[in-house]
# Entry
Amino acid sequence: MKFQANLAYNKKTFRRRNSIKTMNRIFFVAVIMLMLVSSLTYSVEDPDKSMVLYLSFDQLNGKKVDDHSKYGNHGETAGKPKLVEGKFGKCLEFNGKSDWVVVPHHKTLCVEEQVTVMAWIKTERFTDPATRWQGILAKSNATRSYSFYTTSDAGGALHFSAAGGSVSNKIKLNEWQHVVAQMTEKGQHQYYINGENGGSGGGGVLPGEKDVDDVLVGKTHEGTREFLGLIDEVRIWNRELSQKEVKEHMNMGYDELFPVDPRQRLTTTWGALKKM
# Structure
């Protein structure tokens, strides 16, 4: 009888302990899932809604070029730009003749009052042989939303055509440079080269939704302005960024801006939890 009583007691104790372990596991899973859902909810608000285009060029899906902004302004390659080692991850190499990227027009790409355009470039020349410019990126030049070039003007510089036109301080050939042009809150152009003040001037009133042209990377709409060299990390905002923000983005590629994809983390963690 004593043996049976001990056996019944041990079974009861085992069940109680097992029940506690199960409850602890359920609680742990619930906490983890809550954290993941919170992270996923936060990711919906990121990136900044004022960023209307972000092409990292880290990979190509056939001809498709992914836009990492929240607006999904995906593009396609024209010609055969090469995917090569970039400033951050991969980038596109343009042949200066028949390679570029086309991002179809969408109203989210229009700018009303302010704009910031940004890229890493490494170019072999300042101009297309037939002109004084070569295109980094552009929307329409006829209505002058934002067309961003290198130019032979000023001994080799940047040119920004947004309402009006202007020229930056000098840039260099055959090395990576971070280049930024803006229409500021004051209605004038501001340049940054490698995070530092690159000059200012020009300005005017932006066309907003009157500009219905596509966005091009590696050329502009005028023709004979194709880019020769490497372009990486193209980003456009519909606002003026501060110099501090410019420097922060200069030092961040896709992996730094989005260190963990919450959706991937959710899938991976849920798979591990099911094995518990």
